[in-house]
Design goal:
It is a single chain. The protein is α+β, with helices and mostly antiparallel strands and 580 residues long. Helix content is 59%, strand content 15%. It has a 5-stranded antiparallel sheet with strand order 4-3-7-6-5, with helices on both faces. Strands 9-8-12-11-10 form a 5-stranded antiparallel sheet, sandwiched between helices. Helix 2 packs across helix 6 and helix 7 (167-175) packs across helix 9. The longest helix has 44 residues, at 255-298.
């Protein structure tokens, strides 16, 4: 709450002092002035700090009117109008999304519009109070117009100073105080000469009123928005004083014409000053953005090039110079194709041109040449630059050295090609099975074992379906063990896709991704049908010998019975061997 009272006191004091200063340049009687800076002070303060400070405005206005001799009832009426008008103006500025830093050219127009409407209240209520009290002794319309114009000019001239005032700008002015002092002295001297000391009056001296205008631009460029506002206030005040004392280019025998000429001039210099401020702000923003971009690109590992539609280079960053050896001065105006050479792939260049024409951008790796003739793989990202109408005006490209990545990729591709050749020539089945049991990869030898015509025929299939029922449990067990990080082997009998039965022996290990995570099973499988058949023949032969020995050892059997059993054993072995 203490902060509220302190700010209220500051507002009241500034309003009071500005009001007394304005009344030193009267236009109609004692209470109506050509320029009422207090309205601008009130609008700026209420906009920045809130509506709750309106009592300070009302009390300060009441005090000013009573000091200059108005009775308390008339002073109260004028104070009500002088308080309501800034409140209405502030409300309108909020509704219009006004930017108090005048970063847009639209903002000065919004301020003028809001002030023009808001000050209708102060002029109407004030003139009504003077009329009812019998204090108004001049034409009602002239007095009302002068009051409204004085308040309007006061807002346009003074409010911006309090809108834009900031610690940083005052620091800038303090750092440049010799230049600021020189500017202030020159501006004040020139304004006094043109509007007060000049012997010529009226239209004969009108051309001289333009001489202070360059000083507004000086103030804007060197001291920011605060300098602009000070210039407008200083020139407007001196012009109003000179006109009210009968000197300067705006003095006329017709008081109405005199006031209108002065107001038009003050509105013009204010508009001009804030338009220059808005343009300067945009220019400063662009310059700051350029500096930030340039500083960021200076230490960046990437190079940046900008070229026009004819591929003529207009800009390269320091990163580009480090990457290629070409400096900006020696490349500017030359073709950006200077990085291309005899080994640059023409197909890649054609793809680049096609993508830029069709999509407006290109991303790819291009074999490029440095200034010293050495080659490097250039990772390029190029985008088309469009103007505000959507027309193509140039190209913006990023370049970085991706030689290590490309060489690694090429080495990997060569390694994969060699591995693929080995797998295709490998006589054993090599396959990769996913964690869910689906087939991911199998070489030609494996496809022949399961009687598949192509890999597409079995891609994603579950090989378990080819295994005889009695051996599936063992196959599942090995698969589960490999997923757990172990290795193992098993034998099983399969029925191929065309019905041929084969005995297979499989050795499996975990299959991992680049992060070391197990994602499936890698196995080598060989056809052991011949070995299994040989083992079965050996077993049958051994069984036959044992049986034959048992028959011949049975001496109690008649010879004919022994002969019959030997013949039956021979027939049985024949049927087994033939699969009958």
């Amino acid at each position: 709450m203490s902060n509220y009272w302190l700010l209220s006191l500051c507002l009241a004091v500034v309003y009071f002092v500005a009001g007394l200063a304005g009344l030193q340049v009267p236009a109609v009687g004692t209470y109506i002035t050509l320029i009422w800076f207090s309205s601008g002070v009130a609008v700026a303060f209420l906009f920045r700090y809130g509506y709750r400070y309106w009592p300070a405005v009302g009390l300060a206005s009441l005090a000013i009117n009573m000091v200059v001799g108005a009775d308390w009832l008339t002073s109260l009426g004028m104070a009500i109008g002088n308080t309501a008008a800034p409140l209405l103006t502030t409300f309108l500025l909020h509704q219009l999304n006004f930017n108090r830093r005048f970063e847009r050219q639209l903002d000065i127009a919004l301020l003028a519009m809001a002030a023009a409407v808001g000050m209708l209240v102060s002029s109407s209520v004030g003139i009504a109070a003077l009329t009812l009290s019998g204090t108004l002794t001049v034409d009602f319309l002239k007095a009302w117009l002068c009051w409204w114009g004085g308040d309007l000019i006061g807002v346009i001239a003074a409010a911006p100073l309090f809108f834009v005032a900031s610690r940083s700008e005052f620091i800038t002015i303090r750092q440049r105080w010799p230049e600021f002092t020189c500017w202030l002295a020159l501006t004040a001297s020139l304004a006094i000469f043109v509007f007060v000391l000049n012997d010529s009056v009226g239209e004969n001296a009108l051309s001289l009123s333009c001489t202070p205008l360059p000083l507004i631009a000086w103030a804007t460029m060197r001291f920011g928005a605060t300098g602009t506002s000070l210039a407008i206030i200083l020139i407007s005040t001196v012009a109003a004083y000179g006109t009210s004392t009968g000197t300067g280019p705006f003095f006329r025998s017709d008081a109405t014409q005199e006031i209108l000429s002065l107001w038009i001039y003050m509105v013009t210099i204010a508009t001009l000053g804030w338009l220059i401020t808005a343009l300067h702000f945009v220019q400063s923003q662009a310059a700051n953005a350029y500096r930030v971009l340039e500083n960021g690109l200076r230490d960046a590992a990437v190079g940046v090039m900008i070229a026009d539609l004819d591929q003529q280079v207009s800009y390269v960053s320091e990163g580009f110079t480090r990457l290629t050896g070409y400096a900006g001065d020696e490349l500017r105006g030359r073709s950006c194709t200077i990085l291309q050479g005899k080994d640059t792939d023409p197909n890649t260049l054609q793809a680049m041109r096609s993508n830029l024409e069709r999509n407006g951008h290109f991303a790819g790796d291009v074999l490029s040449y440095r200034k010293d003739g050495t080659t490097f793989w250039n990772g390029m990202l190029i985008s088309t630059i469009f103007n505000e109408r959507g027309d193509r005006v140039g190209y913006f490209g990023f370049q970085r050295d991706v030689s290590e990545e490309v060489e690694t990729k090429l080495a990997l591709e060569r390694s994969e090609a060699r591995l693929r050749t080995i797998l295709e020539l490998e006589p054993e089945c090599v396959k990769i099975v996913a964690a869910d049991g689906s087939l991911l990869q199998m070489n030609p030898a494996g496809l022949a074992m399961i009687e598949a015509d192509s890999f597409d025929q079995v891609r994603g299939a579950r090989l378990e379906s080819l295994i005889e029922l009695d051996y599936r449990a063992g196959f599942r067990d090995i698969h589960a063990r490999t997923l757990a990080g172990e290795s193992g082997s098993c034998e099983f009998l399969i029925s191929g896709l065309k019905g041929t039965k084969r005995w297979l022996e499989s050795h499996a290990v975990p299959y991992r991704n680049s992060n070391g995570q197990i994602i499936g099973q890698l196995s080598v499988t060989r056809d052991v049908t011949s070995r299994k058949l040989a083992e079965e023949d050996q077993q049958r032969f051994e069984y036959a010998i044992r049986t034959l020995l048992a028959i011949t050892a049975a001496s109690d059997l008649p010879f004919q019975e022994q002969l019959r059993r030997i013949l039956e054993l021979g027939c049985q072995q024949f049927r087994l061997r033939q699969g009958i």
